[in-house]
């Protein structure tokens, strides 16, 4: 504080920080106190995801937060500030929602698995971000909500991710009531994979990430892409598509190596090809 008073500026905190080790890239939302998904935060997160796409050193991505709030969703103060624009904010609102849609799809379409490590509250677009991740592990103190209805703004975009993760009636209950649910309820709905004690959260996510990172990255990439693609198809089309994927996968060197290693009772040596 003394330095600030003397006119020395404190360093600007990056809205998203990145750390990589052992093939695992950890992206931390670092925009206190609410880790709101402002334009700056969304651009920083999407930029980090884009850079990781072609980084062979990244095999798994973990998304977490540095605060007690995982993410409270869109920055309502930032949005409100543009109501004074000539178009009453329409242009800025459109930019925000488009960027959010691009960010969520960047998570789903990313060739690397993305795991949400959720400690604290994840609401509105923050809940949407959790639902968009491939896997999610929550602490016992985590809570979730799509509370837009409480402020006259239905959580229409969070609805897209939420309704693709939980049963329709569960999704509608969250969307229509805006009520907070605890981690165990979220687990029962299928919004998160596991609920663990807070002091075991980081270790649990690290172990899960390490397990996935030990697989062939080519195989994981093929599987993730196919999972989301077939989910949008009819049954017959999905089987036809999945069969073609399996054939191409069988021709990959890692499939040849993995099957050979299994038959020979040895550990496979992945080439990611």
From TrEMBL:
Q: Which UniProt keywords apply?
A: Fatty acid metabolism, Lipid metabolism, Transit peptide
UniProt keyword annotation of Iron-sulfur present: no
Does the keyword section mention Lipid metabolism?
yes
A Pfam family in this protein? ECH_1
Instruction: Give the domain of life.
Output: Bacteria
Quick one: a GO biological-process term for this protein?
Answer: fatty acid metabolic process
* GO MF, one example: hydro-lyase activity
What does this protein's UniProt record list under function?
May play a role in fatty acid biosynthesis and insulin sensitivity.
Q: Which family does it belong to?
A: Belongs to the enoyl-CoA hydratase/isomerase family.
Provide the protein name: Enoyl-CoA hydratase domain-containing protein 3, mitochondrial
């Amino acid at each position: 504080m003394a330095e600030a008073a003397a006119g020395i500026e404190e360093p600007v905190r990056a809205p998203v920080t990145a750390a990589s080790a052992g093939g695992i890239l950890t992206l931390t939302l670092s925009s206190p106190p609410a880790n709101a998904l402002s334009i700056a935060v969304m651009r920083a997160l999407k930029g980090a995801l884009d850079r990781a796409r072609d980084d062979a050193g990244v095999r798994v991505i973990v998304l977490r937060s540095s605060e007690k709030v995982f993410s409270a969703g869109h920055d309502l103060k930032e949005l409100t500030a543009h109501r004074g624009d000539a178009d009453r904010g329409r242009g800025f609102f459109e930019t925000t929602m488009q960027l959010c849609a691009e960010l969520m799809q960047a998570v789903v379409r990313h060739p690397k698995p993305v795991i949400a490590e959720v400690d604290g509250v994840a609401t509105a677009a923050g809940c949407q971000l959790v639902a968009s991740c491939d896997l999610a592990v929550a602490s016992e103190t985590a809570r979730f909500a799509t509370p837009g209805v409480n402020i006259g703004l239905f959580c229409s975009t969070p609805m897209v991710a939420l309704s693709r993760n939980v049963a329709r009636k569960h999704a509608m209950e969250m969307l229509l009531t805006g009520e907070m649910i605890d981690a165990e309820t979220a687990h029962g709905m299928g919004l998160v994979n596991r609920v663990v004690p807070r002091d075991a959260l980081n270790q649990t996510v690290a172990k899960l990430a390490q397990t996935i990172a030990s697989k062939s990255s080519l195989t994981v990439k093929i599987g993730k892409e196919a999972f989301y693609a077939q989910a949008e198809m009819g049954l017959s089309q999905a089987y036809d598509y999945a069969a073609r994927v399996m054939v191409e996968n069988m021709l990959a060197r890692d499939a040849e190596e993995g099957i050979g290693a299994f038959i020979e009772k040895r550990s496979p040596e992945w080439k990611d090809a």
